[in-house]
Design brief:
This protein has helices spanning about 20-25, 30-55, 60-75, 80-90, 95-120. The protein is mainly α. About 35% of the residues are buried.
Length: about 120
Amino acid sequence: MYYAIASEGACAPSFERPIDLVHLAKQTLGDRALEREILDLFSTQVKAVLGRLEQAALADARHDLAHTLKGSARAVGAWKVAAQAEGCEQHAADLDWPAHFNALQHSINEALGAIESLRQGR
């Protein structure tokens, strides 16, 4: 079960957790079933797009895929993923692309781990 922690007046994104549950609760109007569905869809999409991003050789493809991840991450409150995806988007053609991609992978793994913990009620 997912637990959204309500907070009066909380407007700033929270980077303390891989998923900002307050943001997600606001996006879903507190509907826990919808939160679960959205996080499940996010998990599926992130894994698929990450695989395509890893194989992308062209900077344009890397840019577009990273942009997709950035938008999805922002929608669910995965702010670290969004920030790393933005870095990948900005550096898609750079020689230091692998370092940005590795940082993105790390933040995605944290988010997926948090989602799995939420599923298991931890």
